[in-house]
């Protein structure tokens, strides 16, 4: 006989609705605590991944503005639009979770280096021309009125 899979594995949305109802009615005895804990952990991981991804892409576009002179005239409008978009996304996450600003600072250099790789791949420019370490502060990078 085939083992029965838990609701979490067979119908996630139904599991979610059932868990919410159990929490609202304080029916803690039947709650799927193991999966609930995993879901809560994943929420924090999701925001951390999103904010780092946005910072990486923000770096990529700031580097384009600063260093990709050959394409600057024809692409600056799109780059600045992307810069605004990534800044707004970061602001939204920080509004909900201000403590993630520390996480941004901790990952600032790593995401610069990732954004630099994307920039170098996109431009084909010589890596020696682009600093290996960030040349702007976190405050500048997040400032909606600042461009390099």
Please write out the topology:
Layout: H1 7-10, H2 12-24, H3 33-67, H4 69-96, H5 100-106, H6 108-123, H7 138-142
Short description:
This protein is mainly alpha-helical and 148 residues long.
The biggest sheet amounts to: none
Distance between the termini: 66 Å
How many strands appear in the DSSP assignment?
0
Uncertain runs: none
Calculate Rg over CA atoms: 21 Å
Category by helix and strand content: mainly alpha
Tell me, briefly, the overall form: elongated
**Secondary-structure element pattern, one letter each:** HHHHHHH
Characterize the quaternary organization of these chains.
single chain
Share in β-strands: under 5%
Number of helices: 7
Helix residue percentage: over 70%
* Average pLDDT score: 94
Overview of the molecule:
Helix content is 73%, strand content 0%. It is an all-alpha fold and 148 residues long. Helix 3 packs antiparallel against helix 4 and helix 3 crosses helix 6. It is elongated and about 65 Å long. The N and C termini lie far apart (66 Å).
Annotation keywords:
elongated; 148 residues; mainly alpha
